[in-house]
Design a protein that fits this description.
Blueprint: H1 2-20, H2 24-29, H3 35-60
């Protein structure tokens, strides 16, 4: 049980680190030129939020 809790905590930290590993400022500062790139970045966050929600639901189960 402790191994599962530690694994979930590690996964949450890894997701946090991967999300902020790349600076969004440089991406968004140039996104006004690339319409498709901006929407890919914005709608890509649905996958990030869905995976964080799935992780929380899996932990609750």
């Amino acid at each position: 049980m402790y191994a599962v809790a530690a694994g979930v905590l590690f996964m949450a930290y890894a997701m946090w680190w991967l999300h902020f590993a790349r600076s969004a400022h440089t991406l968004l500062a140039t996104a006004y030129r690339a319409h498709r790139r901006r929407f890919t970045w914005a709608y890509g966050h649905y996958l990030i939020f869905a995976s964080a929600t799935a992780e929380g639901a899996g932990l609750a189960v």
